[in-house]
Amino acid sequence: MTGPVEGGPDRSDLLTRLDIGAGEVKARVREFYSALNSYLAKTALDDYVQFFNWGYQPLPGRPDDWAGTLPAAMIDRDAVRLVLELIGPLAVDGRDILDVGCGRGGTLSTLASRFAPRKLVGVDLNPQSIAHCRGSQSDPRVQFFQGDAEDLAFGDASFDIVTNIESSNAYPAIDRFYREVNRVLRVGGAFAYTDLLRPDQFDHARRFLTANGFALDSDRDITANVLAARRQSADTQLRAFNAADGAQADATHDALMAYFLAPEGSAFFDSVQEGRFEYRILRFRKTSDCSEL
Ligand SMILES: C[S@@+](CC[C@H](N)C(=O)[O-])C[C@H]1O[C@@H](n2cnc3c(N)ncnc32)[C@H](O)[C@@H]1O
């Protein structure tokens, strides 16, 4: 894959890696997650896979934001841990929560089972993920909608917390998403944000959000914790996800799978380890509406 890609310094890494224009990203992302969902639907994994993220493992000598422990044999243990680290000290009980880029609903089912939120809403670009979420979740507090992070179909000041896990790296117009988060949050509400981005993309997020109605309460580099989770699980996941696709694999598919799972020794794993990307948890608090947004 060669050739220049449109976009300035805020261009997402997905664009660079796939060498596609911003206009194509959403279609590719939708296709990719549709393929994953179709594969899962044909396997016994379908009832169990609730997450599409890289996960988090606690490491000796590195501070965590969640003090509990999870059972060693728990499926999705690292992904659940990532959710709990993201939430950290935030008060969830009685709150209205929006998870943007909710995937197969694991974040909201974790919050529903471990806390007492009032309302949980998940949005994802991929209609199959949303269908899966609806079919697997009967909690009346939880709702799922197909939609775009850059154009949220909710009224102003509708939520107390917006969560966003490993999704924003695929948004071609990230500032539109940040503006939407400001709009749908109530003043005092929290934006709990975690992703794998280039350091300059995190700089941009801090700058843009603190200039536009947010205070930054917490900013933690969890790259080592996430790579520890990749080291332990990526190979197994790659084998499982590739099992049904081998014959039709193409360059785009392979790039997406490597991007998605990053096994140790892959170019993407190495580039994260070398510091070209960071996995961070940022918690912002909305301090004001931004009329100019
Ligand atoms: C790596 S998965 C993470 C899913 C989920 N947050 C989790 O932790 O399991 C990224 C998700 O972001 C979603 N996504 C990508 N672009 C999006 C957009 N513009 N609007 C909404 N969701 C989007 C994808 O469909 C996918 O479900």
Shape: globular
Chemical compounds bound to the protein: S-adenosylmethionine
The CATH architecture category equals 3-Layer(aba) Sandwich
Placed side by side, the strands forming the largest sheet appear as 3-2-1-4-5-7-6
**Count of individual helical segments:** 10
State the end-to-end distance: 36 Å
- Overall radius of gyration: 18 Å
For the record, the CATH class is: Alpha Beta
Largest pleated sheet: 7 strands, mixed
- Helix and strand content put the structural class at alpha/beta
**Proportion of strand residues:** 15-25%
Helix content: 25-40%
- How many strand segments? 7
Average pLDDT, all residues: 88
Q: CATH superfamily, please?
A: Vaccinia Virus protein VP39
Number of domains: 1
Question: Runs with pLDDT <50, length 5+?
Answer: 1-12
Explain what you see:
The structure is a single chain. This protein is 40% helix and 18% strand. Helix 2 (22-41) packs parallel to helix 5 (127-136) and helix 3 (77-87) packs across helix 4 (106-114). The chain has a single domain (1-293), classed as Rossmann fold (3-Layer(aba) Sandwich). The longest helix is centred in the first third of the chain and has 20 residues, at 22-41. It has 293 residues and is of the alpha/beta class. The chain has helices spanning 13-18, 22-41, 77-87, 106-114, 127-136, 174-184, 199-210, 223-242, 251-261, 267-273, and strands spanning 96-100, 119-124, 142-146, 159-165, 185-197, 214-221, 278-286. It is built from 10 helices and 7 strands. It starts with 12 loop residues before the first helix and ends in a 7-residue tail after the last strand. Helix 6 (174-184) links the parallel strand 4 (159-165) and strand 5. It has a 7-stranded mixed beta sheet. It is globular and about 45 Å long. S-adenosylmethionine (SAM) binds next to helix 2, helix 4 and strand 2. Keywords: Methyltransferase, Transferase. InterPro entries: Erg6_SMT_methyltransf, Methyltransf_11, SAM-dependent_MTases_sf. Pfam families: Methyltransf_11. Residues 98-192 form the Methyltransferase type domain. This is Class I SAM-dependent methyltransferase.
